[in-house]
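Record 1 of the preview.
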Amino acid sequence: MVIYDITRTVRPQLAVWPGDNSYSASRVLRIEDGASVNLTTLTLSAHTGSHADAYFHYEADGAHPAGMPLEAYVGRARVVSVAKDGALLPSDFAPAILQGVERLLIKSHVSTLPDDVFPPAFPYLSVELIDLLAEQGARLIGLDSPSVDAFDSKTLPCHHALHRHGLVNLECLLLRDVPDGEYELIALPLKLDLACGSPVRAVLRTLDTN
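->
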């Protein structure tokens, strides 16, 4: 079994959505100053690095991370590479690639970017693709991109389509070293109340073929 860590490292230099809060760790107690322990206070956005959106992010009465369906974030997943930016349509994928997929993880050039670079252009979902995946029983869609919608979208049609179908999403994954194929995904959000998203420690495990 091989484990792929597909999580961006959370550090102060990590690029965040323009205007969002960067990560910082403030030392409250220090062993070198005579304290018995080191103690830190963290400041970060709910969407720092690899993260799961909660429905509350874009629905006024949507669930916070603590209320999101955990089973959607654990299970069989398919990694698929794309070579375009902009809206991803069903026609951008071979039909067999999408057939029967439970969790689709979309890999693009964004995974090759350093942690401190926000992508100037990136692929994102389309309502047509979400509708098709939902019809086939999908539970989760993940991207290495920072959003499932276009950067300048104000109506967020893809976010709302995910909620309408009961799908969940992951953003800012790091799929650079992962070959296309089938895996087991584990990417649980923290049990946070009152928040609009949660960082995740996302990993893929190769499947036992014996």
